[in-house]
Write a structure and sequence with these properties.
The protein has about 250 residues and is an alpha/beta fold. The protein contains ten helices and seven strands. It is globular. Bound molecules: S-adenosylmethionine.
């Protein structure tokens, strides 16, 4: 399927896919915001190396659908996100998975964190273009932000996609989540070995693996996994460790 000349996400097939896979449909206003987001990212990509996913159908599947699919299996997420919760997207890059969630859940408070200032400056311009007043940005390393009182154990939900190994992602995300909250790690492939090491890492960080979900994407049938970590007790103060350590010496 190619959407070269069509506004993104506006084909009837896509309306059906949203309905079948997420049991939900974007409003006209949200469709318009998806389209604006797409155009702004393609434009921004001319100067900044934001994403290699710029073909319309690929953008729809890998950025819009995939971002929202991560929060789909947990019906209570949807209800609580609609009611309004605090969410942090760690290593957001060009704004994924955080920006589609900001568009869909205007009552939630979203924070988009990245260590690269130029990416965050770009996202600031998107937020203002799309009038997304529920969303703020933060420049910094997850290892440092996770030790700041203002952010540590303050979020109901942490999202993290394509930022490192599962253990590193757990160490970046769980310290930021409140007790009882969730961290969602978005992955491509997944192995039993990863489950074992993640279980051990989560345990040290005050979390447990609540669910590992495998699914396929609707156009290209690519395999994806989302791993849901529940924060059950406070994270010991030594985590996250210093900048670079979670990736160099995974738990
Ligand atoms: N999450 C986005 C996505 O899936 O399209 C971007 C993924 S990109 C491969 C990884 C991003 O994480 C980069 O923008 C990088 O600057 C950021 N990053 C890597 N390590 C980080 C850390 N420790 N703290 C904050 N951001 C980090």
């Amino acid at each position: 399927m190619t959407l070269e000349s069509l506004p993104i996400a506006s084909l009837p097939e896509m309306a059906e896919i949203w309905q079948q896979t997420l049991n939900w449909q974007p409003t006209d206003q949200q469709q318009k915001q998806f389209q604006q987001l797409y155009e702004l990212i393609v434009e921004g990509n001319r100067q900044l190396n934001l994403t290699r996913i710029t073909e319309p159908d690929e953008f729809w599947e890998k950025h819009l659908w995939d971002s929202l699919r991560g929060i789909a299996p947990k019906q209570q997420f949807i209800s609580s996100l609609s009611a309004g919760v605090s969410v942090i997207d760690i290593g957001t890059g060009a704004g994924f998975p955080g920006l589609p969630i900001s568009i869909i859940f205007p009552n939630s408070q979203i924070t988009l964190l990245d260590s690269t200032r130029k990416k965050i400056n770009f996202i600031d311009s998107i937020l203002s273009n799309l009038s997304l007043t529920n969303t703020k940005t933060l420049v910094g390393r997850a290892e440092e932000i996770g030790q700041e009182n203002k952010h540590r154990q303050r979020y109901d939900l942490a999202l993290i996609r394509a930022v490192g190994t599962a253990s590193a992602c757990a160490e970046y995300s769980l310290p930021l989540v409140k007790q009882g909250g969730l961290a969602v790690i978005y992955r491509g492939s997944w192995t039993q070995e990863e489950s074992k090491s993640l279980k051990n890492a989560a345990n040290q960080l005050g979390g447990v693996i609540e669910l590992i979900e495998e699914f396929t994407t609707p156009f290209t049938n690519s395999i994806r996994h989302c791993i849901y970590l529940r924060k059950v007790v406070n994270t010991p103060i030594q985590f996250p460790r210093a900048v670079g350590i979670p990736s160099q010496k995974p738990l």
